Amino acid sequence: MVADPCADLVVIGARGSTQDVGRNLGVGTEVRVTVEQLARRLHARSGTTVHVDPVRYDSAATPTAAGFLRNTAAGGALALQRLSTLADRCPDSRFALVGFSQGAHVVHTAATSVPSALVPRVVLVAMIADPSHNPDDPIARYSYAAEPTPGHGRLGAGPRIPDDLRRAAISFCVAGDAICNDRGAPGSGQSPTHQHFYEKPSTARVTADRLDRVLRVQGV
User: Which parts of the chain are beta strand (E)?
Assistant: First the structure.
């Protein structure tokens, strides 16, 4: 990955709940290790440069669903502001939105409102363990197994990704992760699977491979 904010591919990344914006490039362990793996693949096969730009939203723990959703909505708005700013500053860059857990919900929220003029430059929308995972959304979905997980997220099934971004979208959810494959209330607990599965190097390699497949279709 490179320091140039106008890299060929700029990843706007959103960390999960309670993750420290001062660590892991500001995007959380799961997003960082996955994007590092993806950057290696892109550089090796096409010389594509990758830069990570964090969404600096409030991901602190909240006692209520309303507080969680307020923070997520604010994060989605910040992600869109950053996308617009960087798109103006970096006319040759293309963009990826990548988030884990609450950050995946931030990405999901932002993806529903990407300005039409910027849609062609968004080549990846990746939601890892999305609490608003929608199993009926006809986007790519991956469960690290033969069949996608059938349940919706803890917050219920979120809105479908708009048709014009469906080509770029993929949602990840492994069996045993009650955040993206269950229903409940924010703060009611996370399974060890949710906390540790996606950060494993072996998982990150598989996730990056799937992201790379989406990018190849987009001509990246």
Answer: 9-14, 50-54, 94-100, 122-128, 140-142, 169-172
Which residues fall within 8 angstroms of residue 213, CB to CB, at 6 or more apart?
Answer: none
Q: Give pLDDT, residue 184.
A: 54
Four-CA torsion 142, 105, 68, 16, nearest 10 degrees = 70
Quote the CA–CA distance of 215 and 142 in Å, as a whole number.
Answer: 15
Render pLDDT for 175-212 as a digit per residue (tens, 0 to 9). 999 999 985 555 456 688 998 999 999 999 999 999 99
Assess contact for 71 and 103: CB atoms under 8 A.
no
Residue 185 main-chain phi, psi, to 5 deg = -125, 145
The predicted-structure confidence for 108-151, as pLDDT tens digits, reads as follows 999 999 999 999 999 999 999 999 999 999 999 999 999 989 99
> What proportions of the chain, in percent to the nearest 5, are helix, strand and coil?
40, 15, 45
Residue 186 is predicted with a pLDDT of: 52
pLDDT of residue 182: 81
Residue the block writes with tokens 């048709």: 163
Q: Which residues contact 192 (CB under 8 A, 6 or more apart)?
A: none
The CA-based angle 125-165-169, given to 5 degrees, is 35
Helices (H) and strands (E) in the chain, counts: 5, 6
